[in-house]
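@channel sequence for tomorrow's demo:
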Amino acid sequence: MTVLRMSTAGLYNQGLQGLLQQQQRLARVQQELVGQNKLLRGADNPSGMARAQQMDHLLASLQQQDRNATLVEHRLRSQENALADVGTQLDRARQLAVQANSPALSDSDRASIAAELRAVRDELLAIANRDDGNGRRLFAGTRDGVIPFADNGGVVSYAGDDGRNSLEISPDHWVVDGEPGSEVFLRVRTGDGIVRGSAAAGNTGTGVLQSSGVVDHAAWTGQSLRVEFTAADAWRVLDGDGNELATGSYTEGATITAGGMQLKISGAPAAGDSFRVEPAPVRDVFATLQGLADALEAPAADPAARAWRANQVGAALGDLATAQDHMLSLRAATGSRLSALDNAADARSATELTLHESLSELRDVDVADAASRLALHLAAIEAAQKTMLRVQGLSLFDRM
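structure tokens (generated this afternoon):
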């Protein structure tokens, strides 16, 4: 027969340990109810704690992406407004060029138009140096802390760079906050955006290039063509290597077609005059306006000089029209990015809702369950206390 013996000290210690355990369980339930969080220690639920921390990190990333989206939206809307203002100024410049192309104007009239064109140019320069309201320049690329454009004696220099600031606006979705000034104002296609026609500076006749363009893209090899007048009524077309492609006779308003190109010339070219059509080069809008204003202010005392001026104004009209299209394309791209911001906001909202629901399942306390456990632990503590009192009152003398 086995006899179990327990000392009085052992009884007291066992009762005390049971009471302390019940108090710890009670304290935990009370902490859960007060903090409404059942993930109090990693040891209680290691995998749940790890998942919760990961979700907290994702929520913090979403908050940063939301701040990024707010910044990008502000920058893009500021850029959109600036581009709209640029379009207004270019529209005014084109109206002035059309007005200046009238042969009925006097030299003083053209000088007044030239002065207004220079004012338009100054306004464009101010827009190009506009900031976003936070002290950062809109059109300086990634060097948005510097003033990007400076006018040095009629030549505009650029202190920014070609970079674009890109920010994450939703998980794995990045958007640039604007275009560099070099792309907006400096690298602007001329002519019709594909080719540009021009009259040689040394022409002595009164021939004026009315229009030029590609009419057969399959036949055009992408190189320059030059129309030379071998006589007042005869021409030939040379390619970029000097090879003769076509010849013909000239009459007033004739259309010349060769190598996939077509030109229309009015007036009376002289022998030795030439006109060139080349792939449209890029040019900054400031130089376009500067050249137009200079042409209007230049003296035109003879028919050849007036024809030169008419060719300069006609070329500038085409350049301005293409510049307007360029700005519209940039505005369209800006609008697409703003639309992407709206879509990203919806994606962030959906992701955030899902994360909060998952976190709630991991962390949030079931109040009814916790209250039941609290009542259970209170009853257990009360029973343990009564047991301790009974044990403390026991004595061998009670058996005698």
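heads up for whoever presents: The mean pLDDT is 84.
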